[in-house]
Amino acid sequence: MQGRGIRKYLAGEAGFTLPEILVVLVIIGVLAGVATISLNRNMAHWELRTAARTMVSDLRAARDLGLERGVTTRVYLYRVSSPMYYKLFYQEGTNWIEKKRVELPGRVRFAAQYIDSSGFTKDCQEEFRFSSSGNGVPTYSGTARLENTKGESWYVIVSSLTGRVRESKDPPP
What we know:
This protein is an alpha+beta fold. The protein is about 35% helix and about 30% strand. The protein has helices at about 1-10, 20-70; strands at about 75-80, 85-90, 95-105, 110, 115, 120-125, 125-130, 140-150, 155-160, 165-170. It has a 4-stranded antiparallel beta sheet, covered by helices on one side. Strands 4-8-9-10 form a 4-stranded antiparallel beta sheet, covered by helices on one side. It has a two-stranded antiparallel sheet with strand order 5-6.
C-alpha cells in the first residue's frame, strides 16, 4: 500500500485540486478582512486613549515647568488646523516662548463642546494656563474633549483651584 502512494506522488498524481486551493485562499481572505476591520476599530480607540494620556502628561509638564521657573505657562489647543495640535508655552517677561508642539493622531480631534453630567451643553476649553504657583488660572481651566472617528470621547480636565490635571471617560459635573 505504501509503495503505491509513493509512486503516485512521484508520478505527479497526488496533491490538491485547483478548487480546493481556491476555497482555502477565499477563507484566508475573509479572515484577513475581518481582522483588519477589528484592528482599525481598536486602533481608533487606543489612539484616543494615548492622545488623552499624552495631553495630560504635557499639561502636568507645563504646570511643573511653571513651578520650577516661577513663571506662568499655557497650553493652547489648535482646533481649526489639520491635523489638530496643541502647543506648550512658558512666559519670559512679556513674551510667550514655545516649548513643545504635539499633533493629534489622524483619527482624533478636539471637540468644541461637551454635555456635562447634568445634561447641559458646555464649551470646551481652548487654552489652559497655570500660575507660577502651579494652580490653574480660573478663566483658563476646564475641560477639553477629544473624540475619535468612531464617536468615542475622552475628557481632559484641569481644576482651577489646585491645578490638578486628570483624564476621564465621563464628562465632568
